[in-house]
Design brief:
The structure is a single chain. The chain is of the alpha/beta class and 438 residues long. The chain contains nine helices and 26 strands. Strands 7-4-6-5-9-8 form a six-stranded mixed sheet. Strands 16-13-17-21-20-18 form a six-stranded mixed sheet, with helices on both faces. The protein has a five-stranded mixed barrel with strand order 22-24-23-25-26. It is elongated and about 95 Å long. Bound molecules: adenosine monophosphate and magnesium ion (MG). Adenosine monophosphate (AMP) is lined by residues 204, 206, 208-209, 221, 223-225, 272-274, 276, 278, 329-332.
């Protein structure tokens, strides 16, 4: 793989001409190879996994024509036979038996006969129409109803109308969600072929970082990125295997060892911190010796620096050509934005899924927003629906890339496109809701 915009010696020109977000996405998309291995898991364990093959329905669902309402089943042809002359007279049918769900009426039903039927019961032979019980008058062994109130074929669910035998019920590449799990059960599928999970290893870099449980020395901060990364990985709608490699000091040999071990055990390696141009930013320098990695200045805010590429020290059996590498910035909000804008889609594609991108829709900005054309901006914001049912959105007051609390308060990003300029109050802007994402 050759990654465009490689760094060495180009830092200055890149800074003046940062890479567009859509261009970075395209490079990442082109580099992703879906995992190939397939495993067979029990039905429940298929939730949030990616189907490895089309699931072809072995049966019709429903398996037989059945009643959609409680009432009386009969042959709909009698309705047209009743004819115009008899239209005013009620139709009278003899009740010859009963069918309940799981208890079919075993013999055929004649033209002027009907069968008392409950919802879900198989339609008796000869019947194709159900008159709801509310529309009939019961007279001893007969029912009477107005033929004009019922159309032939009414209130009958046809065999195979949900899923037809021999047809693909779910396509390969589908992420199995709640309805799909039920659907697979309705086909009687007990074991599901799915792609293996993508393995993701991550670590934080920084001499100033302390782990939860350690004392906070002067000038130090607690490492939060490993926790947001863990959470974002766990909450993805496709399962991944997560490997937390801890905090690594700003020391070239320690970073090299961590990168080698991560690349040997994972398909994707994520790091945070050390991708700027500071003296202690060793992640950048070390990856250059371990693989084909580019350092990007992106035309976006927050999350300007990002490293992306492939590390070559791959384990046998992991994805061909080495682990994909994302060197995320250190600032906690920038980590989250970069994850959602680049890493998440790559992991979903690598899992073999054909999923659509995150939900995005328009809402009116409640305030004016300053925006310089020439970069994509992701503002933390709170979207609300007003009493009239209209969506409006308000950026959180603090937008600094270290202010994680505003990320916690927000429920969406406002996405301001590359070319977009200032936004006037009341103008629609694109929002990307967090729910289901974060
Ligand atoms: P860096 O990109 O390494 O220069 O980090 C940028 C900023 O993010 C610095 O203020 C770091 O202290 C902070 N930072 C880096 N990594 C983490 C982390 N894992 N948790 C919290 N803050 C971090
Ligand atoms: Mg650092």
């Amino acid at each position: 793989m050759t990654i465009s915009n490689d760094t060495s010696g180009q830092a200055a020109s890149l800074a003046q001409n940062p890479l567009r977000v859509d261009a970075a996405r395209a490079i990442i998309r082109a580099a992703v190879r879906p995992v190939a291995a397939v495993e067979h898991v029990a039905l429940r364990s298929a939730l949030n996994r990616v189907l490895a093959v089309d699931i072809v329905s072995p049966i019709d669902v429903p398996a037989h024509d059945n009643a959609a309402m409680d009432g009386y089943a009969f042959a709909g042809a009698v309705l047209s036979n009743a004819g115009a002359a008899a239209a005013r007279a009620p139709l009278s049918l003899a009740v010859v038996g009963e069918a309940r769900a799981g208890h079919p009426f075993e013999r055929a039903c004649g033209p002027l006969e009907c069968v008392r039927i409950m919802t879900g019961a198989p339609m008796p032979a000869g019947c194709d129409t159900v008159v709801p019980q509310e529309l009939v008058t019961r007279k001893d062994s007969h029912v009477e109803f107005d033929a004009q109130n019922v159309a032939p074929g009414a209130n009958c669910r046809r065999a195979g109308e949900d899923l037809a035998r021999g047809r693909a019920a779910l396509d390969a590449g589908r992420i199995v969600r709640s309805a799909d799990l039920g659907l697979l059960a309705s086909l009687g599928v007990a074991e599901v072929p799915v792609r293996r999970r993508v393995r993701v290893a991550f670590f934080s870099t920084g001499d100033e970082l302390r782990s939860v449980g350690e004392p906070l020395d002067a000038g130090c901060v607690y490492d939060s990125n490993r926790y947001t990364l863990y959470a974002m990985l766990e909450r993805m709608n496709v399962d991944v295997d997560v490997l937390d490699l801890g905090v690594i000091r700003d020391e070239p040999s320690a970073i090299e060892a961590a990168l080698r071990s991560a690349a040997a055990s994972a398909d994707v390696v994520l790091t945070s911190g050390g991708v700027s141009v500071g003296d202690a930013d060793f992640t950048a320098r070390m990856t250059a010796t371990l693989g084909d990695v580019a350092f990007w200045q992106l035309a976006m805010r927050p999350g300007r620096p990002l490293a992306f590429g492939r590390l070559s020290a791959a384990a046998p059996g992991s994805s061909e050509g080495g682990a994909l590498f994302f060197g995320l910035p250190g600032n906690p909000v920038a980590v989250m934005v970069s994850f959602y804008q680049f890493v998440r889609d790559a992991l979903i594609a690598m899992s073999g899924a054909n999923a659509a991108g995150p939900l995005q829709f328009a809402a009116a900005s409640s305030t004016p927003i300053k925006k310089r054309p020439g970069r994509t901006e992701f503002l933390r914001a709170v979207a609300m629906r007003d009493a009239a049912g209209q969506w409006s959105v308000t950026p959180t007051p603090a937008q600094g890339s270290g202010v994680l609390s505003s990320m916690s308060r927000a429920n969406c990003f406002i996405v301001l496109a590359h070319e977009q300029g200032d936004v006037a109050a009341g103008t629609p802007v694109d929002i990307m809701p967090f729910e289901g994402l974060i």
